[in-house]
Amino acid sequence: MEELQSVLENEGLTVTFDPMKGRCLIANKDFSPGEVILREEPYVCAPKSFASEAVPVCQGCFKTSNLKKCSACQLVWYCGRSCQLSDWKMHRLECRAISRLDMNWRNVVAPDICLMVKLYLRRKLQSDKIIPTTATDNYKLVESLVAHMSSISEQEKFLYARKAEIVKLILQWPDINDKQTVENFSKLSRNTHTITGSQMEPLGIGLYLVISLINHSCSPNTVLVFEGKEAVIRAVQQIQKGDEVFVSYIDTGAATMSRQDDLLKQYFFTCTCSRCLSHDPVHDDIDGSFKCMNDKCSGVYESNFGRWFMMDYINLGDMQKALEYCRLTMPTYQRVYAGFHPLLGLRYYTSAKLEWVNGNKVIAVDHLDKAVDILKVTHGTETPFMKDLLGKLEKARGGAPFEF
Ligand SMILES: C[S@@+](CC[C@H](N)C(=O)[O-])C[C@H]1O[C@@H](n2cnc3c(N)ncnc32)[C@H](O)[C@@H]1O
């Protein structure tokens, strides 16, 4: 812990302890919106799913195009030799373990099981000194993660016990302690993050040992985005020296009761952030605010249950109808994702594209401008996605012909 403290202090951060929240990450200096607070590679990570219909992801860099399968296990993908080589020490063991499974079984290994297998493989590789350990990259930090064993239900323990059997079957290490694996599954559930692409599409899951120190707020002062599988925490509000660093574990657009419910069920705490305490009804309820404005209609414009009419119409190629739905949902996005929120920035970007293809060039440029203003803070300016976006804005402003 002392070693970790001294590494973090160099980054302008410190770890403290709060009786209610446990460990907390505190800023030791001021951070402005858009400034990177932390960058971290995962201790272990796994693509979203190995199922054959899932979009394949490079296990080295999380790219999704021009991939080739590992010819031995037929399950893991790489974009090229350099990613394959960088993952080789881990994949050599993983490949051998997975290849023992029948092909039908291999395709259904869930990401959290895959993560657990890798957790044990990495522990072994580090204890055998095949992979080096550092203050921020060692199994001792996994041991200190919260598991909430006394709070989880018998049903959840039973589920983890079944998963522990599968881990044992894959690794075939007789000395694996089932009780510890059950506890580790609970740790994964409280501490892993969904790895997303530049447009916030889920690509996989990862365990980030320093980022796991960050507590939750429904009105967070930072945002978590990913560059490949590297996690980046950026300030989205002015953070003063001494302030706690917060990130959101859940969709901040959800209603207070639904947010509190989700946090209690998965993370075992009642949130006391300013939004939860004020229970601000104006800010509340993304679902309710997507209801059709016609009192006699029970329809919604967009719902959390996969009915995104705007996306449906984009996929059907009906851009006029897609724009109609985009315009209907925009006020809700502006309200529930106010400030520097990636989802608002991305919605402005989609709106700009739809306005552009429908011939409304002035609104399109204005919305592209708004998208860039937000995404520059949440995503920085150096990723290929942001460079492309900035290039488009420059061309659109100059009236040059370009494709969205
Ligand atoms: C990812 S960990 C965060 C770091 C944690 N405090 C620790 O000591 O390792 C998530 C856990 O931290 C605690 N936590 C996070 N945010 C909190 C908050 N706003 N209020 C109370 N507890 C919180 C909960 O116990 C939660 O399950």
TrEMBL record:
One of its GO terms (cellular component) is nucleus. One of its GO terms (molecular function) is zinc ion binding. The lineage of its organism: Eukaryota, Viridiplantae, Streptophyta, Embryophyta, Tracheophyta. GO terms for biological process: methylation. Keywords: Metal-binding, Methyltransferase, S-adenosyl-L-methionine, Transferase, Zinc, Zinc-finger. Residues 11-250 form the SET domain. This is SET domain-containing protein. Residues 58-95 form the MYND-type domain. SMART domains: SET (SM00317). The keyword Signal does not apply.
